[in-house]
Every structure is written in structure tokens, then in C-alpha cells.
Design goal:
Helix content: over 70%
Mean pLDDT: 91
Strand content: under 5%
Number of strands: 0
Radius of gyration: 30 Å
Oligomer: single chain
Largest sheet: none
Shape: globular
Length: 563
């Protein structure tokens, strides 16, 4: 016997010798059941799957054994008998009500198109999950479960009648009524019916005011319907996971300043949690606060254990490099890059080094470095190309960036990412016809590309032409992609061009409050100047330029308006 097996056997023997003897337990497998299982498996081996299914289903019903029910469903699926698999799952659910049984019933009901029967087991599934965060996670993942259902409205139309009965049933428990309302909300959101989704979340919130599930779901809805956000703040107190998710949702929606406020609050609540420091550093870099970002990145690194966490350490070091770059401390940034080990972040290291070289006037060297990146896959090749384009744009070499994109599109003229970037370069070069042609091509290939809609609508508004079409495009972009500051800014800018100054001010102030970007600040300053609020406009432009002194839009604005 090999040494390893000998030692293992001796260890097992010693453990058994020291353990207290336990009396033998009688097996639930009696002779008739053993014979039935044997027959079922023999029939399956002979290819008689229908007979095997019937024999083993009877055994499963007599014993309630979950393993047997799984075997029955597997045999039916092997025989491509979806209806029989579903019948087995329903028998399992009826007999045991276990979580696994609920999951099988839901998945098979959806696969067979019997959507009207999936709602109630979905509620049972949620009832067996541990907390509101897990239930919200299941509801957020609902589109993945429904991915093969062609019409987005169909699941809502099929499931809502039964769910509404449960929601309104006085004999049902409050938690169950709340789950029914939340499930309707998730289906409505999947069907792009934000109004119904919000209505159901408000109803669920009233049903159980102490439960955080509606607030968890509102995090997803608020990007498309801002009124949903009102459900969240009352549930934050004492709920750190929800508070963290809220801060991340604000960051996801590019509401940088508001996200920053929430992460600062989380640092006060959980000073020992280093992830909050990392988030702060990222957000501070986004709004050009490099010194504060550098400090938080260093605090995050100091809190990491000495061993392991190499990936997190590399990411934090890259944040420090970005902060040092914004501070124009080129030598310190390069020294930090030199000290970082090679690994999974090689492309990021190369990009950061090339970005510094380009800023120092070594553009040819920077491009050569980026072109040496591996391009073994199409994903690697596209990423390397877009990194080169970014470096060229940062160096105001828009014509060269445009040429790089043009060459890439010859190889793949249907790549929507490349088409979108090519359109932005064309606009910067004043080639508006080409820009519009490329953006419309993007929308032809992907009708839900809200960034292309917004870019086209904004360009029309900025050139003060076809304003009705511009507004329609921007509002569609907002309906599809949510209330991102860039889209809100576009809507404010088209309102300004239309002469709706009060509406323009509301939108532009909201966009600037969420993200004090230089171009948003320039738009708001121009609006304020047109309203006679020149002092506020001047102060706003000055603050924005202190963060981004080289921004061409701000420079042009201050020169044009005498600010």
C-alpha cells in the first residue's frame, strides 16, 4: 500500500478508536425500495427513460427524498421531456416545499413558457432566503432568468394577476404581501414600466415600513426614476450594507459628489473598513482632488494585511500613480510604477507610464510603448487601441486619434465601441456630418445605445439646430440609460437653447451638484451669465478652472464672456 494511503488509514483508525461508539442506525432503504431503485436505474441504463422516470418518481413521492427528485428531473430532461420534468419538480415542491424544489419549479416553468405559474414559487423562494439583501439580489437577477423570453412585457403580463391577488389578500401575511408587490415591481422594471415599479415599491414600503427590501430595489430603479430614491434614506440608519450599496449606486450613476458624501459618512461609521477609503480615493480623483485621493489610497494600503491581497495592492498603487500624475509629480509617479511588480495589471502600468510620457512631450515614445502591448485576442487588441486613442486625446492630438480609429474600423466596421469613439473624434474635428453618420450607425446596430443618443442630441443642441429632435434623442437616452449627469446636462443645454431658462437652470444645477465636471460647469456658468448672475457665473468658472486649468471649454467660455 502506498505510504500516503497507509498513513491515512492509520489516522482514520486512530480517530475511530478514540471516538465513542455509536449504535448502528437503521436505514430507510427497505427491500422493496431497494428493488424499486434498482429497477429504475436498470431501465435508465437500457435507455427506457420513460419507464425509469415513472419508477423513480413513485419512489421519490413515497420517500420525499430530494436526491431522488433531482434524479427524476434529470432523467426527464435527458429524454427531452420538459413537461414530465416540470411535473416531477411540482411534486417535489408540493411534498417538501424546499428551496431547491422552488428553484426547479421556477426555472422549468420559465423554460416551458408557463410564466403564469412561476410567480407563487418565486415568492416561496424569496421567503426562504435569509434577508432583504439576498431577496433583492434574486429580484435584480430576474432579467437573467428571463433572458430567453422574447417580449420584455410578457413576464409581467403573465405573472401580475396572480401576484396581485397575493398582494391584496387580507389573509396573507404582511411579509408575503410585500414580496408579491416587490416581485411585480421587478417585473415592471424589466418591462421598462418605471411608473408601475415605483408604485409597487411604495406599496411594499407601506406594508412593512421596517423592512429594507423596497429600499434595496429602489437602488436599481432610481437610475431611471429619481423619485424612487426617496424610499432609500429612511432605511439607512443602522444598515451598513444598504448604506454601502446606496453609496455605490450613486457612484454607478456618476453622481460623484453625492457618492463622496456617503462614503465619507461610511468612513465615520466604519473606520476599520478599508474599502471605503479606496472608494473615496477613486471619487476624489474623478473630481480632481488628487491630494485627498493620495492620502486615502495610502490609508487603504496601510490597512491591508501584509500577506496576500496583491490585486488590491496593485489597484491602490495605480490610484496613487493617478493622483501623482494629476499633481504633475511625474518623477514620483514613474518611480512608483518602476517599483510595481509585473502581473495582471501590466496593461494598466503601461498606459499610466505612456500617459505621463505624453504629458512630458514624449508622445512618439508613449505610442510605441502602447503598440507593444499584447494583441493576441480581439479584446486585447481593442483595449490597446483605445488606450492609445485616450493618450492621444489627452495630448490634444485629436486628428491622430481619429486616424487610429479610422484604420481600426476598416477591419471591423460594425464595432459599436469603435464607431462611437470615431464619432466623438469627428465632432471634435468639426466633421459633424461624419459624426452624425457614425452615431446613427451605432443606433442602427444597437437601438438601446443611450450614450450615442445623448451624444447626437447634445451635438444638435450645442450647434443650436434641430432642437426638437435633439430633445427627443436626449429624453430617450434618459429613459434608457438613467439620469446620469451627462444626460441631465444635455437636457439642460437643449432647454437653454430653446429659451426655457428656468427649466435649464433646474437641470444644469442638478447635473453640477451630482458631478462638477468642467463642461457642466461651463454650461451652468453661461446660463447664469445670460440671466444676469455674472458674479455667480464668474465664481463657478473660476472654481472649475482651478480643478482643470487646461480645459479648453472653460478657457473659451471665460474669454467669450469676459469672466
Amino acid at each position: 500500500m502506498p505510504l500516503r494511503k497507509t498513513l491515512l488509514a492509520l489516522c482514520l483508525f486512530a480517530a475511530q478508536a478514540q471516538a465513542a461508539p455509536t449504535p448502528p442506525q437503521p436505514s430507510a432503504l427497505d427491500a422493496p425500495l431497494f428493488y424499486q431503485l434498482l429497477i429504475g436505474e436498470l431501465e435508465a441504463q437500457r435507455g427506457e427513460l420513460g419507464t425509469a422516470y415513472q419508477v423513480l418518481l413513485d419512489a421519490a413521492r413515497r420517500t420525499g427524498d430530494e436526491g431522488l427528485y433531482r434524479r427524476v428531473i434529470a432523467l426527464a430532461l435527458q429524454a427531452r421531456a420538459g413537461t414530465e420534468a416540470y411535473a416531477g419538480a411540482r411534486a417535489w415542491r408540493q411534498q417538501t416545499g424546499s428551496l431547491a424544489a422552488q428553484q426547479h419549479v421556477v426555472q422549468l416553468a420559465v423554460a416551458l413558457g408557463r410564466l403564469e405559474e412561476a410567480g407563487e414559487p418565486l415568492i416561496d423562494w424569496m421567503e426562504q432566503l435569509g434577508d432583504s439583501a439576498q431577496r433583492a439580489g434574486l429580484l435584480t437577477a430576474l432579467p437573467q432568468l428571463l433572458r430567453n423570453v422574447n417580449e420584455r412585457e410578457r413576464p409581467l403580463n403573465a405573472m401580475e394577476p396572480r401576484l396581485a391577488e397575493i398582494r391584496d389578500a387580507h389573509e396573507a401575511s404582511k411579509p408575503r404581501r410585500q414580496l408579491a408587490a416587490c416581485l411585480i415591481a421587478a417585473l415592471a422594471l424589466h418591462a421598462d414600466n418605471e411608473a408601475l415599479a415605483l408604485n409597487q415599491l411604495r406599496q411594499a414600503d407601506r406594508e412593512l415600513p421596517q423592512d429594507a427590501l423596497p429600499a434595496w430595489m429602489a437602488l436599481d430603479l432610481m437610475r431611471r426614476n429619481p423619485d424612487a430614491e426617496a424610499i432609500v434614506p429612511p432605511r439607512l440608519a443602522g444598515n451598513i450594507p444598504l448604506h454601502t450599496a446606496y453609496a455605490r449606486a450613486l457612484s454607478r450613476d456618476q453622481r460623484t459628489l453625492e457618492a463622496l458624501e456617503q462614503f465619507e459618512a461610511l468612513v465615520r461609521l466604519e473606520p476599520e473598513q478599508p474599502a471605503h477609503r479606496y472608494a473615496l480615493a477613486m471619487l476624489q480623483l474623478d473630481i480632481r482632488q488628487p491630494q485627498a485621493a493620495l492620502s486615502n489610497a495610502e490609508l487603504y494600503l496601510a490597512a491591508l494585511p501584509e500577506a496576500g491581497h496583491d490585486e488590491q495592492r496593485a489597484l491602490a498603487q495605480l490610484l496613487k500613480v493617478q493622483a501623482l500624475t494629476q499633481l504633475q509629480r511625474w518623477d514620483a509617479a514613474l518611480a512608483l510604477l518602476d517599483a510595481m511588480p509585473a502581473g495582471t495589471r501590466d496593461a494598466d502600468l503601461v498606459f499610466r507610464r505612456a500617459s505621463i510620457e505624453a504629458r512630458q512631450g514624449q508622445l512618439a515614445k508613449a505610442r510605441e510603448r502602447l503598440r507593444a502591448l499584447p494583441r493576441e485576442s480581439s479584446e486585447q487588441a481593442e483595449r490597446a487601441l483605445l488606450l492609445e486613442v485616450q493618450v492621444l486625446r489627452d495630448a490634444n492630438q485629436w486628428s491622430a486619434a481619429h486616424q487610429v480609429l479610422e484604420e481600426a474600423l476598416r477591419d471591423d466596421p460594425t464595432d459599436t465601441d469603435l464607431l462611437y469613439e470615431h464619432a466623438l473624434s469627428a465632432e471634435r474635428l468639426g466633421r459633424f456630418d461624419l459624426m452624425e453618420q457614425q452615431l446613427r450607425r451605432v443606433l442602427e446596430l444597437n437601438p438601446r445605445h443611450h450614450h450615442a443618443m445623448n451624444a447626437l442630441g447634445y451635438s444638435l443642441a450645442d450647434r443650436n439646430t434641430r432642437l426638437a429632435e435633439a430633445r427627443e434623442l436626449i429624453e430617450r437616452a434618459m429613459a434608457l440609460g438613467g439620469h446620469e449627469p451627462a444626460v441631465i446636462d444635455s437636457l439642460g443645454w437643449v432647454a437653454f437653447r430653446e429659451g426655457r431658462l428656468d427649466e435649464a437652470e433646474r437641470w444644469l444645477r442638478r447635473a453640477h451638484r451630482a458631478r462638477p465636471d468642467a463642461e457642466i460647469a461651463a454650461h451652468l456658468a453661461e446660463l447664469l451669465y445670460s440671466q444676469g448672475k455674472s458674479d455667480e457665473a464668474r465664481q463657478l468658472a473660476r472654481e472649475a478652472q482651478s480643478r482643470e486649468p487646461e480645459n479648453a471649454v472653460l478657457k473659451a467660455l471665460r474669454k467669450r464672456l469676459g469672466l
